[in-house]
C-alpha cells in the first residue's frame, strides 16, 4: 500500500500509518490530536488508544499493538513518541518495513520522530508507505496565516487587523499564541477585563492592544476596528513605545547624551527626540537637571 505525503491530516481519509517529524512540537501535537479525534470518540479511547515511548519499546511489542483489532470501535490508535530512539537491528527494520507495506487497516499507527533522518531505514520505507508531514517552526510571514486558521478552527471570526496585533503582541511561539487565544476566550466568557502588569512604556501600550486581540477571538469585528487605520495606528503605537523604552535605556547609561546623538541612536529627527522627551517628562518617567536627563525608577 503506497501512501502520499500530506500537509494536513484533516483534509484526507484516515491513513493506517502516519509519520510526523521536525522541531515544531506544537504542530505535531495538533496534528496527532486531529487524527485521534477523527478516529475515536471519548468512549472508545479506553480500549483503543495506546501511547508508547520509542526508547522503551521493542519492535515485536510495537507490531503486536498495531496488529491488534479494535474493541467496540471501527478504529484503534497507537502513538509512538520518539520513534527515532527505538533500538533497531537490521531484522527489526525489515519487520517494520513489512508492516508499513501491509498495515492493519483498522489501526492508525502514528510515529513521532522530531530528529528523524529520512535518508536511513526505517524512514526510507516510511517515505514510501506512510502519510508524512514535516513540522518545522514557521517563519514570520506564515504566522498570521496560522493564527487566522487556528481561530477559525475554533468556530470564531478572525479579523486580519487583529491577527496582526496578536502576532505583534505574542510573537512566533505557536504554543504561546494558542494559550493567549484560549485565555482571551476564557476572559470573554467570564466577562472579565485583564490588566497586565505594566513594567515599561511598551507594556502599557500592549495592554490596550490586548483588548483588540480579545475582540478578534470573540469574532466581533466592530469591537476590533472599523477601518485599516486602527491597525496602522496601533502598530505605530507599539513602535513608538519601543522607541520610548529605548530612550530610557540610553538615558540610564548616558544621562548627558545630547539630542543629536540620541536622534542618531534612534534614527529619528531631533524634533522627535524633543517631543518624546517632553512626553516622558510629563509622564513622570524622567527629569532634566544640569547634568542631562535623569531616569526616575
Question: How does this structure look, described?
Answer:
By secondary structure, the protein is of the alpha/beta class. It folds into 3 domains: 9-134, P-loop containing nucleotide triphosphate hydrolases (Rossmann fold, 3-Layer(aba) Sandwich); 141-237, no CATH class; 254-297, Arc Repressor Mutant, subunit A, CATH 1.10.10. The protein contains 13 helices and 7 strands. It has helices at 25-39, 45-48, 59-67, 90-101, 123-129, 143-153, 160-170, 174-189, 201-218, 221-224, 228-253, 259-266, 270-282; strands at residues 17-21, 49-53, 76-81, 107-113, 131-134, 286-289, 292-295. A 5-stranded parallel sheet has the order 2-3-4-1-5, sandwiched between helices. Strand 2, helix 3 (59-67) and strand 3 form a beta-alpha-beta unit. Helix 6 (143-153) packs across helix 7, helix 6 packs parallel to helix 8 and helix 12 crosses helix 13. It is elongated, with a radius of gyration of 27 Å. The termini are far apart. Mean pLDDT is 83; it is low at 1-7, 192-198 and 220-228.
